[in-house]
Amino acid sequence: MKAFMAWLVCATLLLASLLPSASALAEKKENAESESGKLKSAIVIEQDTGKVLYKKNENKKLPPASMTKVMTLLLIFKAIKSHQISLNDKVEVSEHAASMGGSQVFLEPGEAMTVDEMLKAICIASANDASVAMAEHLAGSEKAFVARMNQEAQKLGMSQTHFVNPTGLPTKNHYTSAHDMAVMARALLNYPQVLQYTSKYEDYLRENTDKKFWLVNTNKLIKSYPGADGLKTGFTNEAKYCLTATAKRNGMRVVAVVMGAPTPKERNKEISGLMNQAFASYETKALVKKNKTVAIAKVRKGDHDEVPIVTEKPVVVLLKKGERSSGLKKSVKLNGTLKAPIKSGTVVGYYIVKKKGKVVSKTPLMVKENVKRASWWQLFKRSAGTILTH
């Protein structure tokens, strides 16, 4: 009996040594929770309305690493839209651009690629050399391009942002916040052409040469998260793992930013969870289409008396799942009397939607066509016609 008891005690002790203790399990759980909470900052925004759906330290100034390239891309696509450059333009690579370290596509000094190829390199492979080459092509120098980046940041109201380069390579005084990243991402998404690049998981440069280069998207959510089609990853030792992501489901697009995640796995897990929560909790309802005429405004001293006023974007309201859209009050508010000349696309007011007295949607309204200043003869005939009718 004593021998059996001794054997039982030994077996119990051996089993206890093999199994984790309650305190060890608790410690493991605590570590997992702690790991999940290591994000320095985060934000989730609905694209059309700009409503913030989640935030954590969203105004904290942090290094953005390669997420900087969201602003670089914004300026490139603005230049394309204004016809300053085209996708087929050739961009010659300087020695300075070719010398960039970090993520690169190994451009050589004197090599020329099209803007289209440079965009592939930036959007898919996060190429620093291509980013600087494009900066020099657009502004003449990297320094001049960075000045434009900071000017654009000011225009967008990004008060927690300052850029020193177009790449995100580590340097002093180069910072942004999760909130400001979301603002510039929303601005970039006004150029949906960018998604043709950021949604590609792989592509090639120099495809028909012996220097064929395989591009693989640094944003793995493109392949693993339903609806994901952009935008930009980032990593440096100081910034840790960052991501500005966007996804669209059932007509609703969200922009999510995480900064300072300890691992790429944790970064992707956190941002996926945040977007899942947004899609599970909210939905959007479109009320008016983009470019829809909602008013006719009179123009003083114009070559024609009236001009159509249209929506710059779709008029959208954000609703909690199950919430009804009834009881909405819609109105058109113009900034004042229009006076020629006016350029097409000039914002002149807002389409405002209220619910229970609270503004739930505010969409810019713009002039649909150019209005030139009337000639003296047009003004004379108009005045004469007015006199004769009275």
Short structural summary:
Helix content is about 35%, strand content about 30%.
User: Regarding CATH, which class of the largest domain?
Assistant: Alpha Beta
Strand residues, percent: 25-35%
User: How many β strands by DSSP?
Assistant: 17
Provide the spatial order of strands within the biggest beta sheet. 14-16-17-12-11-15
Helical content stands at 25-40%
- Assign an overall shape: globular
Distance between the termini: 125 Å
Question: Can you identify the CATH superfamily of the largest domain?
Answer: DD-peptidase/beta-lactamase superfamily
Q: What's the CATH topology label of the largest domain?
A: Beta-lactamase
Oligomer: single chain
Structural class: alpha+beta
Overall residue-averaged pLDDT value: 88
**CATH architecture tag of the largest domain:** 3-Layer(aba) Sandwich
Enzyme class: hydrolase
Family: Belongs to the peptidase S11 family.
Keywords: Carboxypeptidase, Cell shape, Cell wall biogenesis/degradation, Hydrolase, Peptidoglycan synthesis, Protease, Signal
InterPro entries: Beta-lactam/transpept-like (IPR012338), Peniciliin-bd_prot_C_sf (IPR015956), Peptidase_S11 (IPR018044), Peptidase_S11_C (IPR012907), Peptidase_S11_C_sf (IPR037167), Peptidase_S11_N (IPR001967)
Question: What would you note in describing this structure?
Answer:
The chain is an alpha+beta fold. The protein folds into two domains: 41-282, 3-Layer(aba) Sandwich (Beta-lactamase), CATH 3.40.710; 289-389, Peptidoglycan synthesis regulatory factor (PBP3), Domain 2 (Sandwich), CATH 2.60.410. It contains twelve helices and 17 strands. It has helices spanning 2-18, 22-36, 69-81, 95-98, 115-125, 128-139, 142-155, 178-188, 195-198, 221-224, 264-281, 376-389; strands spanning 41-46, 52-56, 90-92, 112-114, 202-205, 213-216, 228-236, 240-249, 252-261, 282-288, 293-300, 306-311, 315-320, 328-334, 338-339, 347-355, 358-367. The strands form five sheets. Strands 14-16-17-12-11-15 form a six-stranded mixed sheet, with no helix packed on it. A five-stranded antiparallel sheet has the order 2-1-9-8-7, sandwiched between helices. Strands 3-4 form a two-stranded antiparallel sheet. A hairpin with a 2-residue loop joins strand 8 and strand 9 (252-261). The protein starts with a helix and ends with a helix. Belongs to the peptidase S11 family. Pathway: Cell wall biogenesis; peptidoglycan biosynthesis. It catalyses: Preferential cleavage: (Ac)2-L-Lys-D-Ala-|-D-Ala. Also transpeptidation of peptidyl-alanyl moieties that are N-acyl substituents of D-alanine. Its EC number is 3.4.16.4. InterPro entries: Beta-lactam/transpept-like (IPR012338), Peniciliin-bd_prot_C_sf (IPR015956), Peptidase_S11 (IPR018044), Peptidase_S11_C (IPR012907), Peptidase_S11_C_sf (IPR037167), Peptidase_S11_N (IPR001967).
